[in-house]
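Could you help me review a protein record that somebody else here produced? What it holds is a sequence and that sequence's fold in token form. I need someone to confirm that the token line plausibly describes how this chain folds. Take the sequence as given and treat only the tokens as open to question. This is what I was given:
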Amino acid sequence: MRVASTRGSSLLVVLAIAGLAAAAPILDNNDQITISRINSPYIPADASQQWFKDEGFRLIATSEFDREWMTEQQILELIRRKKHFMDVTDGDLENMDSLSPVPLMAPPAGVTHQALVDPILSNVSESSMESFLTEFSSFRTRYYQSQSGKESGDWLFAQVKALLNRYPSDRYKTSVRQFKHSFPQSSVIARIEPVSAHPSAPIVIVGAHQDSVNQWNPWFGRSPGADDDGSGTATILESLRTILESGVLNSEGWAKPIEYHWYAAEEGGLLGSQKVAAEYRERGAKVYAMWQCDMTGYQPPNLAEVIGVSTDFVDPAFSKYVKLLVETYGGVKAVDTKCGYGCSDHASWYKAGYPAVFTFEALFENSSPYIHTANDDVSHISFSHMAKFAKVIVGWTVELSFD
């Protein structure tokens, strides 16, 4: 979190030393939402929301109805406790009801494009993912506020751009852009679109988050983030490479644009994806469905290999369809799991009103014990497990984007 002023920085230090007295609830205009603030002699009794912002506080939502003005140290404590949250300070997704309703579509009735998908799944490369992830996790940290986080995002952008340039075609258009934020790290958005696509064709989105965090020292602590979420970043990049290399997008029947998103600042409270989802919603973009791929690389020892499919804060129909794809193209069992409020970037799209799904490396309670530390490195990654996710994402992309 970037502190707004020197005076605010000093205040946060004083509050941290003071121990932060209990928060007092304040009802928002929506009587279902409670906004809490810290009771402290250092905070004026009539402090406004702007006062909190100016002093470097952030408005943190830990459920659909509970919000609290927090200091940086309090936010870090949430991360250490593995308590999920959304930073709603900027209010990007707070007024979606005032916009035109999102047109919702049903998922495909079944798996209908195996003839296109099956022949290319063998091209998913574990060594390709290992090479990328080894380099990507070599940045000291990918923390969104840090210079290293900016550099890792710029490097990722260059890798995606080079990949798209490697596979030109007269059947489709490709583009990649950096979605700029108020913090140093940019989100990265790649798009592949059939030249014959109807202008109103909905977008098929696959996402991951590119940032990492060291829960004890986010700015300078070593944070390879190999699993969280270098694994998801590498997985969706490999699915993109596999699809482009196969030439399947030159086939008849491809009708919908495909986008791959790598979000900045997920660890800061879904900051990057909230901005992206809000921008899409505000311009009336049609999205068929969004799949978030966060943590695909850890296989718990002595447990059967599975892919977890989240059942909360997701679209039930598309989640059911993902389970079908997992068992068709992944070759492992799909199991229901729950991740909680603000668990990953799918929550931003869900809040914006779009159909969203979320998959996970295991049951949530069996996830990697190394995340948010210096030990989240490639030595704890199963690239064969990642490959199964990549294959399912190839299936998702083809099944949803082809008529």
Summary: Confidence is low (pLDDT under 50) at residues 1-29. The first strand starts at residue 23 and ends at 27. The radius of gyration is 21 Å.
